[in-house]
Amino acid sequence: MGIPEGVAKPEEQRLGPVLRRRDQVQPGTTDQRLLDTEGDSEWVHTDPWRVMRIQSEFVEGFGALAELPSAISVFGSARTKPDSPEYEAGVRIGRALVEAGFAVITGGGPGAMEAANKGAREAKGVSVGLGIELPFEQGLNQHVDIGVNFRYFFVRKTMFVKYAQGFVVLPGGLGTLDELFEALTLVQTRKVTRFPIVLFGTEYWKGLVDWLRDSVVAGGKASERDLLLFHVTDDVDEAVALVTKETGK
């Protein structure tokens, strides 16, 4: 539907909160476009529609996790092999966190994430998986009791932080580093408070810690106290004790 024949095109048009003038005036009204059954379906790929999808993901995530007890997010590589020491460490960490009174949140995938979920499930705790839509994603692992799948990384990362009292980070790749530095930035800028971050595996994380100290801090890009934002350990009991102590649990 457009402007009726013989009626001049208006110079100004108000569409809700949006003002359009001159050449930017659109034919018809918002209701006409809503109720018109003709036309293609490209509108579902427009930015305004994406905003609605983003909003719906926040609503679904908040609704699913609102009653979650105190929790710790555990990160690590999806490529960790089930027969590896890292996988076994993930199982022990998941189990120990439940025994300390926490629910366990992971990315819901295989590898280290599966290990932590498995440990939580074996300890009869709450095992949560927050998945992400990826071309190569395998879906949520079998040890997840509460699972939510997301389209958008930034919505998913909000859930990791909002519903957790701390992070335990197992050896991982770019995704794990993304989640780690997101948390470090939030703590450094005081967007979140009392948020312990534990890196598990001293040998694996040594190069990163050395680079932060010898390049980032030494170069004046961060302060010495920023190195206190995280702890590094090889001991499961110490990792759990650190998050327990800092969360006041």
From TrEMBL:
Disordered: annotated span: 1-33
The keyword Transferase appears for this protein: no
Q: Which UniProt keywords apply?
A: Cytokinin biosynthesis, Hydrolase
What class does this enzyme belong to in the EC scheme?
hydrolase
Q: Where is the composition biased (Basic and acidic residues)?
A: 8-24
Which InterPro entries would you find in this protein's record? LOG, LOG_fam, LOG_family_nucleotidases
Matching entries from Pfam families are given as:
Lysine_decarbox
Quickly give the catalysed reaction.
Answer: 9-ribosyl-trans-zeatin 5'-phosphate + H2O = trans-zeatin + D-ribose 5-phosphate; N(6)-(dimethylallyl)adenosine 5'-phosphate + H2O = N(6)-dimethylallyladenine + D-ribose 5-phosphate
**What EC number(s) does the entry state?**
3.2.2.n1
Which SUPFAM superfamilies does the record cross-reference, listed alphabetically?
MCP/YpsA-like
Q: Return the similarity comment.
A: Belongs to the LOG family.
| Listed name of the protein | Cytokinin riboside 5'-monophosphate phosphoribohydrolase
